[in-house]
């Protein structure tokens, strides 16, 4: 979806949306959703938008409430939100979510909320969220205190892709202050809910909001406006820097997506970290600075080493002096092969035209008979064929009885050359050769 370059707001007091922006959003989107907690921010966003769109546009609008189940009042909040949507004659959907018990409460609630968005939204849909300038200030300060890099200083983006498809998330109130929002709410006599957890200063954001930001604002009255402005400039600068980095990485990466380390090996360590960071970000991976430094040191090791860095949803490994981002490892699937029947596994699929064959685990000690009558140890053959280390256990070792008769279509026992083996590697797990 091509997004509009028009700014969402044309006035802050009272809040008024840009008609060009409204038309652009509703024209391009199949459906427009509003994330609606029932709090003052999302209520103002909903009310202001409904009062500035056409009847036809209103038919494409749906209010989405996520029920986290964290508060004893959660069911009452859901009913309140449904009532507001009904009074405004807008479609309403509620999603109940389960939180990840392993994550912090703030992160678990946020992750569940965004997962709910992706569950209900289709390609070309748009969801509007009510983050405002105060939220931006809290985000930038919070990330600074955690030692963020340049990307983190961008803060909350006004617009971004949601998930892997073409759905988009837009925050039209990001330039509005909390005061602007509250003035609108009082002028229109809106009724909203107050989430008691917003006053719990055990949560870092609440501590910043109630204890830190007021003190800084008293000393620096223009702080909010200046931080929001700085984050916008940082977003522009970082986007251009990322574009440059991706253009260069496209030259340095091979056809299998591996980054050739020879291009960065002789650069200063800070530059190497820069290229590591952008290579990983291009593949949807964001590591902390400490993790990044650990990875860089690990893969600067001697070439005869086979380092592996495992993180929450993948692995980083080296092959032929190139770095590859791999999916999490999975158990090897073993199976009986019926003649002509394709077997699909985690990272490949295979079929054999012959009976009595089976896929077995990689043998610990095996000699392969070559067509010239000589034998070669399996380990030496794997090295000679330059098979990536992450593929060696996952290769399809085809047996008849106790005899290894083929390894995919890479090697076949000369006495079993009549077997017709069709083997296809999945793009999920790179197989550079």
Compact overview of the structure:
It is found in: Cytoplasm. With 433 residues, this protein is α+β, with helices and mostly antiparallel strands.
Q: What would the average pLDDT be, to the nearest integer?
A: 92
CATH superfamily of the largest domain: HUPs
Compute the CA-based radius of gyration.
Answer: 28 Å
Low-confidence stretches: none
Domain Lysidine-tRNA(Ile) synthetase C-terminal: 357-423
Pfam families: ATP_bind_3 (PF01171), TilS (PF09179), TilS_C (PF11734)
GO molecular function, one term: ATP binding
Family: Belongs to the tRNA(Ile)-lysidine synthase family.
Structure notes:
With 433 residues, this protein is α+β, with helices and mostly antiparallel strands. It has three domains: 9-234, 3-Layer(aba) Sandwich (Rossmann fold), CATH 3.40.50.620; 253-326, Chorismate Mutase Domain, subunit A; 335-425, no CATH class. The protein contains twelve helices and 22 strands. The chain has a six-stranded mixed beta sheet with strand order 5-4-3-6-8-7, sandwiched between helices. A five-stranded antiparallel beta sheet has the order 13-16-19-20-21, with no helix packed on it. The protein has a four-stranded antiparallel beta sheet with strand order 9-12-11-10, with no helix packed on it. Belongs to the tRNA(Ile)-lysidine synthase family. Residues 357-423 form the Lysidine-tRNA(Ile) synthetase C-terminal domain. It catalyses: cytidine(34) in tRNA(Ile2) + L-lysine + ATP = lysidine(34) in tRNA(Ile2) + AMP + diphosphate + H(+).
């Amino acid at each position: 979806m091509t997004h509009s370059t028009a700014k969402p707001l044309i006035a802050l007091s009272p809040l008024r949306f840009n008609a060009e922006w409204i038309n652009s959003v509703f024209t391009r989107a199949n459906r427009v959703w509003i994330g609606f907690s029932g709090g003052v921010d999302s209520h103002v966003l909903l009310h202001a938008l409904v009062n500035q769109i056409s009847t036809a546009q209103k038919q494409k609008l749906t209010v989405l409430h996520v029920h986290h189940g964290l508060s004893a009042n959660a069911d009452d909040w859901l009913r309140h939100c449904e009532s507001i949507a009904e009074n405004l004659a807008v479609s309403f959907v509620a999603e109940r979510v389960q939180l990840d018990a392993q994550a912090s409460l703030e992160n678990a609630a946020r992750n569940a909320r965004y997962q709910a968005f992706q569950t209900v939204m289709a390609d070309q849909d748009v969801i509007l969220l009510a983050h405002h300038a105060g939220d931006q200030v809290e985000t930038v300060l919070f990330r600074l205190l955690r030692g963020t890099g340049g990307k983190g200083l961008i803060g909350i983006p006004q617009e971004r892709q949601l998930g892997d498809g073409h759905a988009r998330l837009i925050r039209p109130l990001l330039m509005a202050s909390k005061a602007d929002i509250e003035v609108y709410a009082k002028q229109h006599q809106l009724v909203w809910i107050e989430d008691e957890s917003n006053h719990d200063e055990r949560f870092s954001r609440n501590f910043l909001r109630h204890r830190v930001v007021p003190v800084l604002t008293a000393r620096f009255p223009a702080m909010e406006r200046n931080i929001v402005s700085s984050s916008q400039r940082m977003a522009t600068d970082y986007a251009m820097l990322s574009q440059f980095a991706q253009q260069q990485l496209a030259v340095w990466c091979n056809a299998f997506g591996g980054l050739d380390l020879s291009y960065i090996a002789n650069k200063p360590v800070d530059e190497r970290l820069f290229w590591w960071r952008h290579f990983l970000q291009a593949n949807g991976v964001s590591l902390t600075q400490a993790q990044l430094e650990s990875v860089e040191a690990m893969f600067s090791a001697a070439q005869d080493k086979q380092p592996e860095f495992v993180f929450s949803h993948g692995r980083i490994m080296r092959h032929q002096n190139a770095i590859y981002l791999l999916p999490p490892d999975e158990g090897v699937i073993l199976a009986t092969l019926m003649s002509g029947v394709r077997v699909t596994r985690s990272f490949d699929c295979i079929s054999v035209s012959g009976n009595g064959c089976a896929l077995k685990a990689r043998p610990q000690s095996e000699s392969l008979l070559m067509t010239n009558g000589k034998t070669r140890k399996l380990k030496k053959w794997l090295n000679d064929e330059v098979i990536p280390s992450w593929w060696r256990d996952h290769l399809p070792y085809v047996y008849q009885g106790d005899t290894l008769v083929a390894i995919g279509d890479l090697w076949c026992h000369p006495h079993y050359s009549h077997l017709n083996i069709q083997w296809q590697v999945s793009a999920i797990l790179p197989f550079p050769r």
